[in-house]
Amino acid sequence: MASKQMLALAAAILALAVLLPVRAAATEHLVGDDNGWVLNFDYAAWVATKQFRVGDTLVFKYKKPNHTVVEVGGADFANCTKPATANELGSGEDRVALDKEGRRWFFCGVKDHCQKNMKLKITVLAAGALAPEAPPPPPPSSPAGKVQPRVAHAVAAVIAGAAAMLVL
Predict the structure, then answer these.
(1) Rounded to 10 degrees, what is the CA torsion of 152, 153, 154, 155?
(2) CATH homologous superfamily of 26-137
(3) pTM of the full structure
(4) Which residues form the signal peptide (predicted)?
């Protein structure tokens, strides 16, 4: 009987060890999906289908020097104003680590691109936080569909643990 209990406990611990790190895995968000960072794209609609957490990364892909990425505060975002101290990225494949909770604002600093709505506003949640409401599933062709499911792995771990307890 004791060996059966030890086997069940070992299985539960293994399931937790394998599944929980995946739940905490960071997500890389390609801004605009296959379109990239371009004019004439609805970034507000794109954001509505995503959840951003501390530890995730935004990737802005674009043709340089056609575009840039400028991170600003909320007021500058609303007015498309680039402060002299703003950090302007221009590599063509800029990576921005989401290292703290809260709002983040980005726009293209080239010509009038910001006024033409080439801008992105996101809310970054705590690493383990659940979003108030889950976004709708992405279309099958979207790279967002490749994002590792966080909640499913956590649920599987809880079920494995509960099953092990029942055997005990």
Answers:
(1) 50
(2) Cupredoxins -  blue copper proteins (2.60.40.420)
(3) 0.66
(4) 1-24
- Distance, in Å, from the CA atom of 29 to the CA atom of 19, rounded to the nearest integer, reads 22
Return d(Cα 82, Cα 36) in angstroms, integer: 22
Tokens standing for 37?
């960072």
Quick: pLDDT tens for 109-122: 999 999 999 999 99
Strands 119-125 and 28-30 come out as unpaired
Task: Tell me how far apart the alpha carbons of residues 105 and 119 are, in angstroms, rounded to a whole number.
Answer: 8
DSSP, residue by residue, 93-141: EEEEE--SSEEEEEE--STTTTTTT-EEEEEEEPTTPPPSSPPPPPPTT
